[in-house]
Amino acid sequence: MIPRTKFALLPTAIESMPRLTAALNGPRLWVKRDDQTGLAMGGNKTRKLEFVLAEAQAHGARTLITVGAAQSNHARQTAALAKKFGLDCILVLSGKEPELYTGNLLLDKLLGAEIIWSRYEDREDVLKRTFEDAWAAGRRPHLIPLGASDAVGTMGYYFAFQEMLEQQKDFDWIVVASSSGGTQAGLALGASTADWPGKVLGISIDLPQRELQEKVASLVNQAADKYLLDTALKPEQILVNDDYLGAGYGVLGEREVEAIQLFARFEGIFLDPVYTGRAAAGLIDLIRKGFFTRDDRVLFWHTGGQPALFGDRYTLELNR
Question: pTM for this structure?
Answer without folding.
Answer: 0.97
